[in-house]
């Protein structure tokens, strides 16, 4: 580093000035010990894999929320990074979920009470909106990449809440299917 560089230029390079680095670091600090604990507890892959998928969905939601706050504060570069990261997390989740579904098939909710009705409502709304949001996400990202801001903003107003709902209900479906349902039986 040249000692003649202004302090502002140096501050921009420090990790403290990199909110995305902190966000990714925080997510890793949560996910890695959780997965390690589950492996150490002897969870079979059939239980570990859905938990990892829930973490991917949760990470997508965190990136989405961070990107939303970033654009509200006028931080376009951070917004862009968060939204691309949310897309990557959602894409990895989809590939992982399809692999899990191909290997173990559909999983039935245990029980038949009101909790199952709640689970099914959340699951079906999640599934329908997950299918609908894919082309919306792709189009919104395309418009942003092409700097077509008016069209990007107009579509993002619809895409963001649906994508956030899908990410959060993905986590809810996991907890209901693998933790709440079995605990109530």
- First-residue to last-residue Cα separation: 63 Å
- Strand element count: 0
Number of domains: 2
By DSSP (H or I, 4+ residues per run), the number of helices equals 6
Instruction: Kindly report the average pLDDT value.
Output: 90
Summarize the biggest pleated sheet. Answer: none
- The coarse overall form would be globular
Unreliable residue stretches? 1-11
Proportion of residues in helical segments: over 70%
Name the structural class. Answer: mainly alpha
Any idea what the radius of gyration is? Answer: 19 Å
| Strand portion | under 5%
Secondary-structure element order, as H and E?
HHHHHH
Describe this entry's structure for a reader:
The chain is mainly α and 185 residues long. The protein has two domains: 107 residues, no CATH class; 78 residues. Helix 2 runs antiparallel to helix 3 and helix 3 runs antiparallel to helix 6. The longest helix is centred in the C-terminal third of the chain and has 36 residues. The radius of gyration is 19 Å and the shape is globular. The N terminus is likely disordered.
Topology of this structure?
Layout: H1 7-13, H2 19-40, H3 45-72, H4 76-104, H5 114-145, H6 149-184
Helix pairs in contact: 2-3, 3-4, 3-6, 5-6
Short description:
Helices cover 83% and strands 0% of the residues. It has helices at residues 7-13, 19-40, 45-72, 76-104, 114-145, 149-184. Helix 2 runs antiparallel to helix 3 (45-72), helix 3 packs antiparallel against helix 4 (76-104) and helix 5 packs antiparallel against helix 6 (149-184).
């Amino acid at each position: 580093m040249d000692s003649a560089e202004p302090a502002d230029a140096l501050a921009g390079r420090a990790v403290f000035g990199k909110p995305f680095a902190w966000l990714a670091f925080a997510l890793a600090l949560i996910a890695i010990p959780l997965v390690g604990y589950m492996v150490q507890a002897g969870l079979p892959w059939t239980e570990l894999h859905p938990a990892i998928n829930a973490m991917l969905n949760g990470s997508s939601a965190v990136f989405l929320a961070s990107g939303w706050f970033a654009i509200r504060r006028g931080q376009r570069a951070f917004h862009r990074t968060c939204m691309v990261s949310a897309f990557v997390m959602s894409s990895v989740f989809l590939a992982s979920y399809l692999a899990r579904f191909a290997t173990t098939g559909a999983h039935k909710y245990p029980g038949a009470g009101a909790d199952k009705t709640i689970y099914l409502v959340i699951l079906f709304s999640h599934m329908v909106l997950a299918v609908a949001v894919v082309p919306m996400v792709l189009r919104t990202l395309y418009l942003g990449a092409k700097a077509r801001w008016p069209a990007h903003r107009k579509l993002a107003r619809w895409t963001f809440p649906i994508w956030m709902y899908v990410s959060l209900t993905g986590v809810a479906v996991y907890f209901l299917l693998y933790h709440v349902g079995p605990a109530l039986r």
